[in-house]
Amino acid sequence: MIRKKILIVTVFVFSIVNINGQSAITKKSNMSNKLEIATLANGCFWCTEAIFQRLNGVESVISGYSGGTIKNPSYREITTGYTGHAEVIQIEFDPSVITFQEILDVFFSTHDPTTLNRQGNDVGTQYRSAIFYHSLPQKEISNKFIRALLEANVYDRPIVTEITSFDVFYKAENYHQNYYNNNKTQGYCQAIINPKLEKFIKKYKSKLKKQE
């Protein structure tokens, strides 16, 4: 039911930001013919990286840290929660293939945006739900998307997703990159990531890269 409601909201938000039959962010990108960047936090980046890597139009996904107070944090430092960083993925995508609205649709459909500083058994500020916008159109679309979700009563609890201007992204240690694809037999991947990935693939089959 939540997935269906979010799909309806996605169509609604797309119509709101549409300019001459094209979203502002898509129009801008087609004019410049460049990839765009989205920086999102929605729990453990091992899970989120695996999901967004499989979307058609996504060129790269890098796991890292954003939103904190110290430079060049290590994974050990951010797990304390004291640095203020969130585990994020930085996505390069082709807006002529997948729009920022569609990125947000997947973002909200594949995590719980109503739990403060928590996703499942992962607890701490590093696991908070956040959108670090790279442009005013991204900020506008994010705010409208959340308002539409609230108006549609998609969730039973308030959405706590943080919407913050992007500042700096620190790439995580190499062993975090492409983690699921390199460690499919590892216990966490089989117990936690596999079920999430199976649900995602079933819901977004038409938006996946051909090999998926």
Could you outline the blueprint of secondary structure elements for this entry?
Elements: H1 2-16, E1 18-19, E2 22-23, H2 24-32, E3 36-42, H3 45-52, E4 58-66, H4 75-78, E5 86-93, H5 100-109, E6 118-119, E7 122-123, E8 129-133, H6 136-151, E9 162-165, E10 170-171, H7 179-182, H8 187-203
Parallel strand pairs: 8-9
Antiparallel strand pairs: 1-2, 3-5, 3-8, 4-5, 4-10, 6-7
In words, what does this structure look like?
By secondary structure, the protein is an alpha+beta fold. The protein has a single domain (2-207), classed as Peptide methionine sulphoxide reductase MsrA (Peptide Methionine Sulfoxide Reductase, Chain A), CATH 3.30.1060.10. The chain contains 8 helices and 10 strands. The chain has helices at 2-16, 24-32, 45-52, 75-78, 100-109, 136-151, 179-182, 187-203, and strands at 18-19, 22-23, 36-42, 58-66, 86-93, 118-119, 122-123, 129-133, 162-165, 170-171. The strands form 3 sheets. The chain has a 6-stranded mixed sheet, covered by helices on one side. Strands 1-2 form a two-stranded antiparallel ribbon. Strands 6-7 form a two-stranded antiparallel ribbon. Helix 1 (2-16) runs antiparallel to helix 5 (100-109), helix 1 packs across helix 6 and helix 3 (45-52) runs parallel beside helix 8 (187-203). The longest helix is centred in the last third of the chain and has 17 residues, at 187-203.
Silhouette = globular
Structural class: alpha+beta
* Average pLDDT for all residues: 88
Q: Characterize the biggest β-sheet.
A: 6 strands, mixed
- Beta content comes to 15-25%
CATH superfamily (homologous) name: Peptide methionine sulphoxide reductase MsrA
Euclidean distance between termini CA atoms = 25 Å
Helicity level? 25-40%
The CATH architecture comes to 2-Layer Sandwich
